[in-house]
Structures are given as structure tokens and as C-alpha cells.
Write a structure and sequence with these properties.
Layout lengths: L2 E6 L5 E5 L17 E4 L17 H5 L2 H4 L18
Antiparallel strand pairs: 1-2, 1-3
Length: about 80
């Protein structure tokens, strides 16, 4: 269930509330009963945990990042497919 952040227009209180995506937005501050607005935040991203996840095919097959040399011995990317492809 997502957590939404709100801010009171009257007293400035910021608070969070877990709500279903189908629930109506809160309208009243729990402290002073003033009007509240929903804060739009960046959210919490996600992290890919599998080996090689998020890498392009060329980056996965190139050893430049791990050894300092490409599969054909160059010290910089050559723009060609990896050896053996």
C-alpha cells in the first residue's frame, strides 16, 4: 500500500498516511483541522539485484570496466561488437 505525504496549509505540519491508491486524498490536518495538500515527491526508486542487471549488452560483454582493457586488448571502447559475438 503506498504512503502519501501531506502538508497542512494552516499550520505547516507535514505527515504521511498509508492509503490505497483508490482512497480519496485527505482534506483535513490531524492537528489543527486546517486544509491539507498532497505533496508530490520523487518516491523511492528501485534497485536491480541480479548479476549484470541494468547493463547494456555491450557493457556486459566488455571487460574494460573490470580489467581496464577490452576483450581485444584496447584501453578504450572501439565501438565494435565484442570478440566472439
Amino acid at each position: 500500500m503506498p504512503t502519501y505525504e501531506y502538508e497542512c496549509i494552516k499550520c505547516g505540519l507535514r505527515f504521511e498516511k498509508q492509503q490505497s491508491i483508490k482512497d480519496e486524498s485527505l482534506k483535513e490536518c490531524p492537528e489543527c483541522h486546517g486544509d491539507v495538500k498532497k505533496i508530490i515527491s520523487g518516491g523511492g526508486g528501485f534497485i536491480l539485484k541480479s548479476a549484470g542487471a541494468g547493463n547494456s549488452a555491450s557493457a556486459k560483454s566488455c571487460s574494460l570496466e573490470t580489467t581496464g582493457r577490452t576483450c581485444c586488448g584496447a584501453t578504450s571502447r572501439c565501438g565494435k561488437p565484442a570478440c566472439g559475438d
